[in-house]
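Hey team,

Filing this mostly as a record. A colleague (T.K.) asked me to run one chain through the structure pipeline before their review meeting, and I want the input and output archived in the tracker in case anyone asks later how it was produced. No errors, nothing strange. Just documentation.

Input sequence:
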Amino acid sequence: MTDAKIARMAFLAYRNASPAFRGLQTLRPSICPIERLLRHIPPGSHALDVGCGAGLLLLAGASSGRVASGCGVDISEPAVAAARKALAELATRSRLEFRCASWLAWPEGPFDVVTLIDVMHHVPPGEQRVFFAAAAARVRPEGILLYKDMCARPWWKASANRLHDLVLARQWIHYVPLAEIRRWATELGFNVVGEEKYSRLWYGHELLAMQRAR
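Output structure:
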């Protein structure tokens, strides 16, 4: 499923959402390379998307056959409401649900895949390690923890994303070095099985795919 197809799907799926949500989700594949993320999700997976926003990743996963069932969780009630409307419009056969919940109320799983996409930089620095561990704990043995965030270097790309979040999220974000994420994952019994760095427009992305040991 190409990013162009994902954008077309989003345009239709979010037609009953607010113009802001519809516009942002339709444009999101131009900024966030969702098609690349889907490659790391095995077909037919049971997935948990942490910080799912309006649910585009899970909906794209369901449309492409990568996600057979799962749950998206986010603390934003408007975003979760938009995700639920889009799910109803898409009428996918996948068994998906979206919940408004903090990390203390995430479903336990275990899941084949847990995704943390562009969420860690929104977590307060003192909570980032425990937040990451809570997500990792929901991955089944030999399952995948898929992590992507915006790059902290070069400074101008990091600054572009920081400005983006100041405008849209009204938040001063806190980057976690990718080496730190790798170290946390190793301590929790994961092996890095994929690493990618790429750019879209003026945004830089860093991805780690990590597999839990048996």
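Quick notes for T.K.: The chain has a mean pLDDT of 90. The domain at 3-212 is CATH 3.40.50.150 (Rossmann fold).
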